[in-house]
Amino acid sequence: MALILNKLQFAASIIRPSLTSRVIPVKCMHPTITKLNEVEQSDQLALQRAPISKDRTTIIPVEVSIRYLKSRAYRETYGDDPVWKIYRRNFKGQFPPKKTRKLCIRGGVIDTGSPCPICRDEYLILDYRNIDLLKQFISEHDGSLLSYNYTNLCQKAYKDLRVAVMKAKEYGLLTFDVPYIYYDYTIWNH
């Protein structure tokens, strides 16, 4: 309705120059933009209603995470085991689903009842400099990355883990063995 009025006023101002044109603000009616605004408002409401223990909006530096892994609080919480060892994943039914959940944190708040081992502890930061944490997710037998079905990480945390491990290997912070293939060159000598 407002668009029609604006067009009529514009047409009238062309015909009669004595009329002053007036612009009426129009609200956006596009469904995706209004949906984004609703999501932002619901995220802000969730942050207001969320308890402090579930708030994940504060950014913790990697240096704090590295010091946390060497602290007494970490040893009391996890002991000598990896962070994923004592975690039990909730799922419906007898058999676990093939994939873990997509993400545990939505809008800066923990969204699930049992978040993955990385998302539940705000001081565990997946970064290429945090070598002690990355080594917990690497197999000691063959040096490959442990599966998310075994470690129960959410898909977002597992993707961040893969990126951090690749980056640490590129920078030389994580050592790995390149497989050596033995060839029989006698077949080439004639």
TrEMBL record:
Keywords associated with the record: Mitochondrion, Phosphoprotein, Ribonucleoprotein, Ribosomal protein, Transit peptide
Protein name: Small ribosomal subunit protein mS40
Family statement drawn from the similarity comment of this UniProt entry: Belongs to the bacterial ribosomal protein bS18 family. Mitochondrion-specific ribosomal protein mS40 subfamily.
Database matches in SUPFAM superfamilies: Ribosomal protein S18 (SSF46911)
Main subcellular location of this protein, as a coarse class: mitochondrion
Organism the protein comes from: Ceratina calcarata
GO molecular function: structural constituent of ribosome
Subcellular location: Mitochondrion
InterPro entries according to UniProt: MRPS18B (IPR040054), Ribosomal_bS18 (IPR001648), Ribosomal_bS18_sf (IPR036870)
Listed GO biological process terms: mitochondrial translation
Gene3D superfamilies: Ribosomal protein S18 (4.10.640.10)
Gene Ontology cellular-component terms listed: mitochondrion; ribonucleoprotein complex; ribosome
